[in-house]
Amino acid sequence: MSEANLNMNEQVNITDDLFEKLPEDEKNAEFIAITLKTFARDAWDRFKRNKLALMGLIFLVVIIILAIVVPMVAPFQFDTQDMANRNALPSLVHPFGTDKLGRDIFVRIMYGARVSLSIGFSTAAINLIIGVLYGGISGYVGGKVDMVMMRIIDIIYAVPSLIYVVLILLVFGDSIGSMMLAICLTSWIGMARQVRTQIMSLKEMEFSLAAKVLGASNSRILLRHLIINALGPIIVSLTMMVPGAIFTEASLSFIGIGLNPSIPSWGKLANDCRALVFNQPIQIIWPVMAISLTILALNFVGDGIGEAFQARTR
Length: 314
Fold this sequence. Notes:
The structure is a single chain. This protein has 13 helices and no strands. The protein is mainly α. The chain has a single domain, classed as MetI-like (MetI-like fold, Orthogonal Bundle), CATH 1.10.3720.10.
């Protein structure tokens, strides 16, 4: 055997004496597992830590399910009258009692939830579309276009919203569609201004400039880059629009300029019980509690979403 081979064997032996091979079961002992989370999953995990927000979400889900199921399975319709059982106290047959015409209050509250929640969520969705597009275009284009669009908003905002509501209800009637139109006419302004502010700051960032250098169209940059990155504040504003719409409908119906008397919204139910507030005070408690608890739950959910997205951005 050559001298070179002997030297190599000696080096291998010395290396084997100095180092010991790690057993197979210990090779991954220091491996740290990392769970990859998407943006939505991370926000949901943060949202669940907020107990009030989670309770508010559960309450809203329960109310929506009851509003769908109760009018379908209840033995009474919302307009079924029983003159022999007027102003009855709560019982097993009528959990919330009956009103001055013998109608079951619990069924009417659940049917009113359909009307009030439909108006709240529908108007919020419409305001979301209008406000995001209007504010996004204004903030992204800038210049004279932005100035003209903002002056239009100032003109609309200068007139009290109650005047728009009354005129629309007088012209188009006191239907659910008219109420939604009246609420949507001015309530999108806040969303548009917030989106405009977000877009004006985001369009100067590196990712937006990089997309423009790469040849992306203006519409793609606005929809696929800027609005997506402003989604957190937009969703928070959206959750705040729903209780605002519900409260507006309830307030207008309570003072008698809202929906048709045959439509049992929560505001209309409270208005019907106003004359009996001293003789039958329990009847006005149910619609007021439904409005208050729902708006409170929506505010809790909005706060929880805001904290989840703010923590993500930090």
